[in-house]
Amino acid sequence: MELLSLEKELKTNTYPGRGIVIGKSADGSKIVIAYFIMGRSVNSRNRVFVEDGNGIHTQAHDPAKLSDPSLIIYAPVRVLNDKTIVTNGDQTDTIYELMEKGQTFEQALRTRKFEPDAPNYTPRISGMVEISDGKADYCMSILKSACGNPDSCSRYTFSYENPVPGEGHFIHTYSYDADVLPSFEGEPKRVRIDKDIDDFTDMVWNSLNEDNKVSLFVRYIDIKTGGYETRIVNKNK
């Protein structure tokens, strides 16, 4: 699979929807996690990321404009021991709670499917990083309708053991902007990760469509110590 420019992937797609990037820094010392949200409706755009312990949650920027919290208010990032979970919905809680009871990432997601937002049936995308004994692995998942058929759920999980320095993978909810939004297709895209946290955060944020971008979360986790740095950018101030 070709190693792509994340900057180009973002700049050439006005509406990838929600996106997760996970990979390893160029020097191999850190795991990189990024999660962004975009929106086309007033309800979707009326959000900010807020720190919540060692994770984050979404929050209405203007509570008076919040019309339906069901699919937009959730905890995108939670940490369970040596695992960091990132998703585009309340399946973050499902993964956290069922893994806490001894189930796997895949088993937890088998209890969920795509979002019930006809006609788009937005995919649920999820990722998890596990750091242990100075090593890091990660996995990604997408749950989506069968080409828009809500009667069938297609489930895909991708696992990356000992990822390559300077590389990561990018998965997002929609292939491109359209009246009815088509789901992401294929494997997560192999992308280059060659910047420090501030340059990487600036690159991602500045590459997202100005009208549609809403919020961005970036975290760099030190593989040896487990310590981390976090950046949050919200369009709504």
Give the number of domains.
1
CATH class: Alpha Beta
| CATH third-tier fold name | Glutamine Phosphoribosylpyrophosphate, subunit 1, domain 1
- Give the name of the CATH superfamily: Inosine monophosphate cyclohydrolase-like
Amino- and carboxy-terminal Cα gap: 39 Å
Record the strand order, biggest sheet. Answer: 11-10-1-2-12-13
- How would the global form be characterised? globular
- Count of DSSP strands: 13
Class from helix and strand fractions: alpha+beta
Task: Determine the mean pLDDT.
Answer: 97
Tell me the Rg in angstroms: 16 Å
Written description of the protein model:
The chain is an alpha+beta fold and 237 residues long. It has a single domain (6-234), classed as Inosine monophosphate cyclohydrolase-like (Glutamine Phosphoribosylpyrophosphate, subunit 1, domain 1). Helices cover 15% and strands 41% of the residues. The protein is built from five helices and 13 strands. The chain has helices at residues 6-11, 42-45, 91-100, 105-109, 197-207, and strands at 19-24, 30-38, 47-52, 55-60, 77-80, 83-87, 124-132, 135-146, 149-161, 167-172, 189-192, 213-222, 228-234. The strands form three sheets. A six-stranded antiparallel sheet has the order 11-10-1-2-12-13, covered by helices on one side. Strands 5-6-7-8-9 form a five-stranded antiparallel sheet. The chain is globular and about 45 Å long. The protein starts with 5 loop residues before the first helix and ends with a strand.
